[in-house]
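Sorry, explain these tokens?

___
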Amino acid sequence: MNRAEKQSQKLFKKTLIHRCDVFIKTRTRVGSQWQEVFVRSVEAAPCRMSTPSPGKTEKIELNQQQFQNTYTLYSLPMDIKQDARVLLYTERSGSWVPEAFYEVKARPRDPSFVGHHYESSCEIMEKMYDVITTSGI
């Protein structure tokens, strides 16, 4: 990374006002059956969740109006994949509070092609989940 890219990334880091945990889907054997579980791969990573402009959320298809509730997660390069779950934290009164779960809908983009930052399309999940920490999975 050259000097200009380093300065750009330094400025970008200042915009990362949220934190997130990333959970990657994996299959594990439970007794005689296989189950899909989500394992935390990244913890407390700096990020920013952003909503699209109103014009980008609305589309008309076959005379039916639809709204897409997609969000964009901006982050430094990290282990994040399509179908991952992201638990977003916001800062309130000096402590980080879980805000919502999001599902990563597409493979993260590297818009600068130099590993400067990632942009991931996400959708909010309707319900919160309990994060269970176990060992041996």
Summary: The longest helix spans residues 3-14. The two ends are 37 Å apart (CA to CA). The chain is about 10% helix and 50% strand.
